[in-house]
Fold:
Amino acid sequence: MKDDPGNAGAPEFSVVVPFYNESENLPQLLSEIDRALEKLGWRAEILLVNDGSTDRFDRPSASPHFSVRWLDLTVRSGQSAAIYYGMQEAAGRWIILMDADLQNDPADIPALWAHLEREKLDLVTGFRVRRQDSWQRRWMSWVGNQVRARLLADCTRDSGCSLKILRRELARRLPGWNGMHRFIPALAQAMGYRTGEAPVHHRPRHAGVSKVRPWRRAVAATIDLLGMIWLVRRQFRGRLRGPDSG
Structure:
């Protein structure tokens, strides 16, 4: 594995995976992430963020080629909290976000990274092609994306896709609040970062059950959107120049 030339021995990538009761999916997920990271060819780490799981599982200490760090939240706090704390602990210059339910395909990571490098972006978000969800979830997601894109003008067709790659500097500037993860592209743009998107696969759930309650999430997202309209207009757009600024 290649080292980060700016900090010998430090990982170039940190893969942050929030999860709640996904014990049946974690072994396969780690294996798939390992293969994807091998293709990138850089030193990397995997952070598994346990959001108060109650199922039984063995804690993996390593994948075949990369270190695995296990983080536990003190109480179940939700996906945004698990993502936020995972990003704060990440050591890599670049952070890869993804879900633990195996609907995101780790094999898409190299293509996302290539798109980010080619377009000189600070954040790339996947947009799910042929989503493997119920018609109700697809329809509600489509409506939510249309409304959000119209009001926030974030040029992102699928903000709810968990598979993303972003600079550590950007990740650490993101505010911590419930629902934050649905608005990462809009927040990044409001702070002056360059964002883009690329198509990714979407797979049926392998095991376990979805924790999403579509109507409850729709109500919460509507309330969050009102706050986001204010927040994106009040963000600092400038940032200090430095080795992580691009």
Notes: The domain at 13-234 is CATH 3.90.550.10 (Spore Coat Polysaccharide Biosynthesis Protein SpsA; Chain A). Residues 16 and 47 are 5 Å apart (CA to CA). The first strand starts at residue 13 and ends at 19. The two ends are 23 Å apart (CA to CA).
